[in-house]
Amino acid sequence: MFVEKLKETGSKGVLEATKLLFRNIPKEGLKTFTSDNGKEFSRFEEISKFLEIDYYFALPHHPWERGTNENTNGLLRQYFPKGTDFNTISDKEIRDVATQLNNRSRKVLNYKTPHEVFWADFNCQIKLHLI
Questions:
Q1: Cα separation of 101 and 125, whole Å?
Q2: What pLDDT, in 10s, does the model give residues 67-81?
Q3: Are 40 and 13 in contact (CB under 8 A)?
Q4: Contact residues for 50 (Cβ-Cβ < 8 A; gap 6+)
Q5: Please, which residues have CB within 8 angstroms of residue 16's CB and are 6 or more apart in sequence?
């Protein structure tokens, strides 16, 4: 999970944050992008083009189509209860929580961490490309 406080709200802020957050992720590590139907994602075509991946929208009232996102939102609520004013939360606090969650083992990942799974897969791909 990568985090970035939006410097600007709306679709422009989401586009800029997405570009910033995914700029160093190797293209081989990205498959698809799925969001909800909020107007903040109206610049989805630019995101899709920038990331060079297919972009999908979940159907309304189908949270299982974004299962990892919904689960992560639940984990984030352990640190930031509903109604939290994020203007009072520092960037460092947010990064610290992201680091904790990225390094927290998950049953669904065979008790590996998201960080281990993502980067191990990517490192394997790199090694295959170098051979």
A1: 24
A2: 888 888 999 999 999
A3: yes
A4: 18, 19, 22
A5: 7, 8
